[in-house]
Amino acid sequence: MTVTEQESTSAAPGEALVVLDNVNKWFGDLHVLQDIDVTINRGEVVVVIGPSGSGKSTLCRAINRLETIDKGSISLDGTPLPEEGKELAKLRAEVGMVFQSFNLFAHKTILENVTLGPMKVRKKDKAAAEKRAKELLDRVGIGHQAAKYPAQLSGGQQQRVAIARALAMDPKVMLFDEPTSALDPEMIKEVLDVMVDLAEQGMTMVVVTHEMGFARTAAHRVLFMADGAIVEENTPEEFFTNPQSDRAKDFLGKIL
Ligand code: ADP
Ligand code: MG
Protein backbone atom coordinates (compact mmCIF):
# COMPACT_ATOMS: atom_id res chain seq x y z
CA MET A 1 0.00 0.00 0.00
CA THR A 2 1.38 3.39 -0.89
CA VAL A 3 0.91 6.48 1.21
CA THR A 4 -1.35 7.86 -1.47
CA GLU A 5 -3.71 4.92 -1.07
CA GLN A 6 -3.63 5.11 2.70
CA GLU A 7 -6.80 6.63 4.08
CA SER A 8 -6.87 8.95 1.12
CA THR A 9 -10.54 9.69 1.62
CA SER A 10 -10.40 10.60 5.30
CA ALA A 11 -9.54 14.27 5.22
CA ALA A 12 -11.96 14.78 8.09
CA PRO A 13 -11.17 13.10 11.41
CA GLY A 14 -12.78 9.71 11.92
CA GLU A 15 -13.16 7.40 14.91
CA ALA A 16 -10.87 7.23 17.95
CA LEU A 17 -7.42 5.82 17.16
CA VAL A 18 -5.22 6.80 20.11
CA VAL A 19 -6.91 7.16 23.48
CA LEU A 20 -5.12 8.44 26.58
CA ASP A 21 -7.27 8.03 29.65
CA ASN A 22 -6.23 9.72 32.89
CA VAL A 23 -2.54 9.25 32.09
CA ASN A 24 -0.14 10.11 34.91
CA LYS A 25 3.60 9.77 35.16
CA TRP A 26 6.20 10.80 37.70
CA PHE A 27 9.96 11.13 37.40
CA GLY A 28 10.74 10.85 41.12
CA ASP A 29 8.90 13.82 42.65
CA LEU A 30 8.25 15.46 39.30
CA HIS A 31 4.67 14.90 38.15
CA VAL A 32 5.54 15.03 34.48
CA LEU A 33 2.16 13.94 33.04
CA GLN A 34 -0.91 14.99 35.01
CA ASP A 35 -4.35 13.52 34.34
CA ILE A 36 -3.97 13.56 30.57
CA ASP A 37 -7.20 12.74 28.74
CA VAL A 38 -6.79 12.94 24.99
CA THR A 39 -8.44 11.15 22.12
CA ILE A 40 -6.81 11.36 18.71
CA ASN A 41 -9.10 10.39 15.88
CA ARG A 42 -8.15 8.60 12.71
CA GLY A 43 -6.98 11.13 10.15
CA GLU A 44 -6.61 13.88 12.73
CA VAL A 45 -3.56 16.14 12.96
CA VAL A 46 -2.89 17.34 16.51
CA VAL A 47 -0.20 19.89 17.26
CA VAL A 48 1.24 19.89 20.78
CA ILE A 49 2.77 23.14 21.89
CA GLY A 50 4.12 24.41 25.20
CA PRO A 51 7.18 25.60 27.07
CA SER A 52 10.33 23.52 27.36
CA GLY A 53 9.99 20.94 30.12
CA SER A 54 6.19 20.86 30.01
CA GLY A 55 6.08 17.13 29.16
CA LYS A 56 5.55 17.15 25.38
CA SER A 57 8.31 14.65 24.59
CA THR A 58 7.31 12.42 27.48
CA LEU A 59 3.75 12.40 26.16
CA CYS A 60 4.95 11.32 22.70
CA ARG A 61 7.30 8.73 24.12
CA ALA A 62 4.50 7.28 26.24
CA ILE A 63 2.38 6.75 23.10
CA ASN A 64 4.93 4.34 21.63
CA ARG A 65 5.95 3.08 25.03
CA LEU A 66 9.46 4.42 25.06
CA GLU A 67 8.26 5.57 28.48
CA THR A 68 5.98 3.64 30.81
CA ILE A 69 3.16 5.40 32.64
CA ASP A 70 2.31 5.07 36.33
CA LYS A 71 -1.45 5.51 36.22
CA GLY A 72 -4.20 5.54 33.60
CA SER A 73 -4.18 3.83 30.22
CA ILE A 74 -3.22 4.34 26.61
CA SER A 75 -4.74 2.38 23.76
CA LEU A 76 -4.10 2.23 20.03
CA ASP A 77 -6.93 1.21 17.76
CA GLY A 78 -8.90 -0.23 20.67
CA THR A 79 -6.03 -2.27 22.15
CA PRO A 80 -4.05 -1.31 25.28
CA LEU A 81 -0.37 -0.73 24.54
CA PRO A 82 1.55 -4.00 24.91
CA GLU A 83 4.17 -4.38 27.64
CA GLU A 84 6.92 -6.29 25.89
CA GLY A 85 8.11 -8.80 23.31
CA LYS A 86 6.86 -9.17 19.77
CA GLU A 87 3.75 -7.14 20.43
CA LEU A 88 5.85 -4.21 21.57
CA ALA A 89 7.98 -4.38 18.42
CA LYS A 90 4.77 -4.34 16.38
CA LEU A 91 3.51 -1.33 18.31
CA ARG A 92 6.74 0.56 17.61
CA ALA A 93 6.14 -0.12 13.92
CA GLU A 94 2.53 1.03 14.10
CA VAL A 95 3.47 4.23 15.88
CA GLY A 96 6.02 5.94 13.65
CA MET A 97 8.29 8.38 15.43
CA VAL A 98 10.41 11.19 14.06
CA PHE A 99 12.77 12.91 16.48
CA GLN A 100 14.57 16.21 16.50
CA SER A 101 17.85 14.36 15.85
CA PHE A 102 17.29 12.23 12.79
CA ASN A 103 18.71 9.02 14.31
CA LEU A 104 19.56 7.36 11.00
CA PHE A 105 21.95 4.40 10.99
CA ALA A 106 25.24 6.06 10.01
CA HIS A 107 26.82 2.94 8.51
CA LYS A 108 23.88 1.98 6.35
CA THR A 109 22.84 3.54 3.07
CA ILE A 110 19.70 5.63 2.81
CA LEU A 111 17.93 2.72 1.10
CA GLU A 112 19.05 0.27 3.81
CA ASN A 113 17.87 2.67 6.50
CA VAL A 114 14.39 2.49 5.02
CA THR A 115 14.27 -1.26 4.25
CA LEU A 116 15.71 -2.56 7.52
CA GLY A 117 12.58 -2.24 9.67
CA PRO A 118 10.13 -3.64 7.12
CA MET A 119 12.41 -6.67 6.55
CA LYS A 120 13.10 -7.34 10.23
CA VAL A 121 9.82 -6.44 11.88
CA ARG A 122 7.31 -6.72 9.06
CA LYS A 123 9.09 -9.73 7.50
CA LYS A 124 8.95 -8.22 4.02
CA ASP A 125 11.25 -9.75 1.44
CA LYS A 126 14.10 -7.61 0.19
CA ALA A 127 12.64 -6.87 -3.25
CA ALA A 128 9.28 -5.75 -1.84
CA ALA A 129 10.95 -3.69 0.89
CA GLU A 130 13.21 -1.96 -1.66
CA LYS A 131 10.36 -1.25 -4.04
CA ARG A 132 8.33 0.37 -1.29
CA ALA A 133 11.38 2.23 0.09
CA LYS A 134 12.10 3.71 -3.33
CA GLU A 135 8.51 4.89 -3.67
CA LEU A 136 8.68 6.56 -0.28
CA LEU A 137 12.10 8.12 -0.93
CA ASP A 138 10.77 9.50 -4.21
CA ARG A 139 7.82 10.90 -2.33
CA VAL A 140 10.02 12.81 0.10
CA GLY A 141 12.30 13.91 -2.75
CA ILE A 142 15.33 11.74 -1.91
CA GLY A 143 14.90 8.96 -4.49
CA HIS A 144 18.10 9.85 -6.37
CA GLN A 145 20.17 9.70 -3.15
CA ALA A 146 19.21 6.18 -2.09
CA ALA A 147 22.75 4.79 -2.41
CA LYS A 148 24.34 7.50 -0.27
CA TYR A 149 25.13 7.43 3.45
CA PRO A 150 23.40 9.72 5.95
CA ALA A 151 26.45 11.95 6.46
CA GLN A 152 26.41 12.80 2.74
CA LEU A 153 22.96 14.39 3.09
CA SER A 154 21.90 17.72 4.58
CA GLY A 155 19.93 17.80 7.82
CA GLY A 156 16.69 18.48 5.97
CA GLN A 157 17.31 15.56 3.65
CA GLN A 158 18.16 13.26 6.56
CA GLN A 159 14.97 14.23 8.32
CA ARG A 160 12.96 13.44 5.19
CA VAL A 161 14.64 10.02 5.10
CA ALA A 162 13.66 9.55 8.76
CA ILE A 163 10.05 10.28 7.77
CA ALA A 164 10.23 7.80 4.88
CA ARG A 165 11.73 5.20 7.21
CA ALA A 166 8.84 5.54 9.65
CA LEU A 167 6.29 5.42 6.82
CA ALA A 168 7.83 2.23 5.45
CA MET A 169 6.41 0.39 8.46
CA ASP A 170 2.85 1.38 7.47
CA PRO A 171 2.21 3.13 10.77
CA LYS A 172 -1.28 3.86 12.03
CA VAL A 173 -0.11 7.13 13.54
CA MET A 174 2.98 9.28 13.15
CA LEU A 175 4.53 11.17 16.06
CA PHE A 176 6.85 14.07 15.34
CA ASP A 177 8.83 15.50 18.25
CA GLU A 178 10.17 18.91 17.20
CA PRO A 179 11.21 17.56 13.80
CA THR A 180 12.55 20.88 12.53
CA SER A 181 14.19 22.28 15.67
CA ALA A 182 17.67 21.06 14.76
CA LEU A 183 17.51 22.27 11.17
CA ASP A 184 18.94 25.34 9.54
CA PRO A 185 16.16 27.76 8.59
CA GLU A 186 16.40 27.07 4.86
CA MET A 187 15.75 23.38 5.44
CA ILE A 188 12.72 23.72 7.66
CA LYS A 189 10.28 24.25 4.82
CA GLU A 190 11.28 21.14 2.87
CA VAL A 191 10.51 19.01 5.92
CA LEU A 192 7.28 20.84 6.77
CA ASP A 193 6.13 20.48 3.16
CA VAL A 194 6.47 16.69 3.43
CA MET A 195 4.50 16.78 6.69
CA VAL A 196 1.75 18.95 5.23
CA ASP A 197 1.52 16.56 2.32
CA LEU A 198 1.19 13.61 4.70
CA ALA A 199 -1.52 15.42 6.64
CA GLU A 200 -3.40 16.08 3.42
CA GLN A 201 -3.24 12.36 2.60
CA GLY A 202 -5.11 11.68 5.83
CA MET A 203 -2.28 10.40 8.01
CA THR A 204 -3.03 10.56 11.73
CA MET A 205 -0.35 12.78 13.23
CA VAL A 206 0.76 14.12 16.59
CA VAL A 207 3.25 16.91 16.05
CA VAL A 208 5.22 18.71 18.74
CA THR A 209 6.24 21.93 17.08
CA HIS A 210 6.25 25.67 17.48
CA GLU A 211 5.88 26.15 13.73
CA MET A 212 2.70 28.16 13.63
CA GLY A 213 2.50 28.06 9.86
CA PHE A 214 2.35 24.27 9.98
CA ALA A 215 -0.26 24.34 12.76
CA ARG A 216 -2.46 26.76 10.84
CA THR A 217 -2.12 24.89 7.56
CA ALA A 218 -2.38 21.31 8.71
CA ALA A 219 -3.62 20.93 12.30
CA HIS A 220 -7.17 20.19 13.27
CA ARG A 221 -6.45 20.83 16.93
CA VAL A 222 -3.80 22.40 19.14
CA LEU A 223 -3.04 21.09 22.63
CA PHE A 224 -1.21 23.54 24.86
CA MET A 225 0.79 21.88 27.65
CA ALA A 226 2.30 23.47 30.73
CA ASP A 227 3.78 21.73 33.78
CA GLY A 228 2.67 18.29 32.67
CA ALA A 229 -0.96 19.16 32.07
CA ILE A 230 -3.03 20.03 29.03
CA VAL A 231 -4.05 23.56 29.86
CA GLU A 232 -5.82 24.48 26.67
CA GLU A 233 -7.21 22.71 23.64
CA ASN A 234 -8.56 24.50 20.61
CA THR A 235 -8.51 24.92 16.85
CA PRO A 236 -5.29 26.56 15.61
CA GLU A 237 -7.21 29.70 14.56
CA GLU A 238 -8.75 30.12 18.02
CA PHE A 239 -5.63 29.13 19.91
CA PHE A 240 -3.28 31.53 18.15
CA THR A 241 -5.62 34.49 17.88
CA ASN A 242 -7.58 34.08 21.07
CA PRO A 243 -5.71 32.07 23.73
CA GLN A 244 -7.78 31.64 26.89
CA SER A 245 -5.33 30.93 29.70
CA ASP A 246 -2.67 33.27 31.08
CA ARG A 247 -0.10 30.50 30.56
CA ALA A 248 -0.91 30.29 26.85
CA LYS A 249 -0.99 34.08 26.44
CA ASP A 250 2.35 34.39 28.15
CA PHE A 251 3.87 31.59 26.06
CA LEU A 252 2.58 32.92 22.74
CA GLY A 253 3.82 36.36 23.68
CA LYS A 254 7.31 34.92 23.89
CA ILE A 255 7.36 32.86 20.69
CA LEU A 256 5.37 35.04 18.27
P1 ADP B 1 9.33 18.91 26.80
O1 ADP B 1 9.44 17.92 25.69
O2 ADP B 1 8.00 19.58 26.86
O3 ADP B 1 10.46 19.91 26.81
P2 ADP B 1 9.96 16.64 28.48
O4 ADP B 1 8.83 15.69 28.32
O5 ADP B 1 11.20 16.34 27.74
O6 ADP B 1 9.44 18.11 28.18
O7 ADP B 1 10.34 16.74 30.00
C1 ADP B 1 9.40 17.07 30.99
C2 ADP B 1 10.09 17.13 32.34
O8 ADP B 1 10.53 15.84 32.70
C3 ADP B 1 11.33 18.02 32.34
O9 ADP B 1 11.37 18.68 33.58
C4 ADP B 1 12.46 17.04 32.21
O10 ADP B 1 13.62 17.53 32.80
C5 ADP B 1 11.92 15.84 32.95
N1 ADP B 1 12.44 14.56 32.42
C6 ADP B 1 12.37 14.12 31.16
N2 ADP B 1 12.91 12.90 31.03
C7 ADP B 1 13.35 12.56 32.26
C8 ADP B 1 14.00 11.39 32.81
N3 ADP B 1 14.28 10.34 32.05
N4 ADP B 1 14.29 11.40 34.12
C9 ADP B 1 13.98 12.46 34.91
N5 ADP B 1 13.36 13.57 34.47
C10 ADP B 1 13.05 13.62 33.17
MG1 MG C 1 10.78 17.83 24.11
UniProtKB/TrEMBL annotation:
GO molecular function: ATP binding; ATP hydrolysis activity; ATPase-coupled polar amino acid-transporter activity
EC number per UniProt: 7.4.2.1
Reaction(s) the record says it catalyses: a polar amino acid(out) + ATP + H2O = a polar amino acid(in) + ADP + phosphate + H(+)
Keywords: Amino-acid transport, ATP-binding, Cell membrane, Membrane, Nucleotide-binding, Transport
Membrane topology: Peripheral membrane protein
Keyword Repeat among record annotations: no
Alphabetical list of InterPro entries matching this protein: AAA+_ATPase, ABC_ATPase_HisP-typ, ABC_transporter-like_ATP-bd, ABC_transporter-like_CS, MetN_ABC_transporter-like, P-loop_NTPase
GO cellular component, one term: plasma membrane
Pfam families recorded: ABC_tran
UniProt cross-references to CDD domains, sorted A to Z: ABC_HisP_GlnQ (cd03262)
Highest taxon of the lineage: Bacteria
UniProt subcellular location: Cell membrane
Segments forming domain ABC transporter: 18-252
Family (UniProt): Belongs to the ABC transporter superfamily.
Name by which UniProt lists this protein: ABC-type polar-amino-acid transporter
The species this protein was found in: Nocardioides donggukensis
